[in-house]
Amino acid sequence: MAELTTIARPYAKAAFEHALAGNALTQWSGMLQLAAVIAADSGVQALLGNPRISSSQLAELFHDVGGASFDEHGKNFLSLLADNNRLNAISEIVALFEVMKAEHEKSVDVRVTAAAELNADLKAKLAAKLEAKLARKVNLSYDINPSLLGGLIIRAGDMVIDGSVRGKLGELGDALRA
Question: Phi/psi at 137 (nearest 5 deg)?
Answer without folding.
Answer: -70, 135
